[in-house]
Write a structure and sequence with these properties.
CATH topology: Muramoyl-pentapeptide Carboxypeptidase, domain 2
Distance between the termini: 33 Å
Helix content: 40-55%
Number of strands: 6
Order of helices and strands: HHHEEHEHHEHEEHHH
Structural class: alpha+beta
Radius of gyration: 18 Å
């Protein structure tokens, strides 16, 4: 990072920190609209690409964390950050078409998709607080970088994994889908971190939404198979069975 950029980011960080203590948890909650919570409002999002777009407060914290990691010769590289509703719908529906055309029944295709991918309108990436990250300095670089085994044993991302476990929380970032055998829902993702000071109040507000109604209003492929029971299970397992530090 060049000196001018760092000075600018640091200035923003100081300004942000001077303001945030005066914002109550309730104030933060009341700031979020339905469209923000489902990825259809980018008013608080900064950046210009899928690897740089983030909630403005999360972006400041991330740059501070990235700067500190660089001291340990780790280049925290974002693979995916903010994701709009439309982008998540494209990902989800492409998989839905692939699996159903391959012979899977619609509900089985959906169950396969939600092992790792969220249903549009339910992704934490809609908030701009969540990032998928790797070490850009790792060599050799794997063809497919988001594989859990790469972060363990002799994997190329062991160094960043260890650094994040020791330091990420001090910058407000927490691993979302932990390697907990008792956790249900999305599978373990050692690359996925969330900026808690914003994502926690956003989750509080998100839980008030009628997820089933939103999904059906948007006419997402396969949404006719989202029964009340399916949505209840999806909510408890995939949306809420996460790192307790983020609840």
């Amino acid at each position: 990072m060049n000196r001018n950029k760092f000075i600018k980011i640091t200035g923003l960080a100081i300004t942000g920190l001077s303001i945030l203590p005066h914002l109550s948890f309730t104030t933060l909650q009341n700031q979020f609209t339905r469209d923000q919570l489902i990825g259809k409002d980018e008013s608080d999002i900064v950046g210009d690409s899928y690897t740089t777009k983030m909630h403005r407060e999360a972006a400041i914290a991330f740059q501070k964390m990235k700067f500190e990691a660089a001291k340990a010769t780790i280049d925290i590289e974002i693979v995916s950050a903010y994701r709009s509703f439309q982008r998540q719908q494209d990902i989800y529906e492409a998989k839905y078409k692939k699996y159903t055309s391959g012979g899977l029944a619609p509900i089985d295709a959906i169950e396969k998709i939600i092992e790792y991918s969220t249903i549009p309108g339910t992704s934490r990436h809609h908030w701009g607080t969540d990032i998928d990250i790797i070490d850009g300095n790792a060599k050799p670089r794997p063809k497919s970088v988001l594989e859990s085994e790469l972060f363990h044993g002799d994997g190329p991302f062991c160094k960043i994994k260890n650094w994040l476990m020791e330091n990420a929380n001090s910058f407000g970032f927490y691993e979302v889908y932990t390697n907990n055998a008792n956790r249900k829902g999305f599978k373990y993702e050692p690359w996925h971190f969330s900026y808690a000071p914003i994502s926690k109040p956003m989750l509080v507000e998100y839980k008030k939404l009628d997820v089933k109604k939103i999904i059906q209003q948007e006419k997402i492929l396969g949404s006719e198979h989202f029964t009340d029971t399916f949505i209840a299970n999806y909510r408890e397992r995939h949306l809420l069975d996460i790192n307790p530090e983020l609840l």
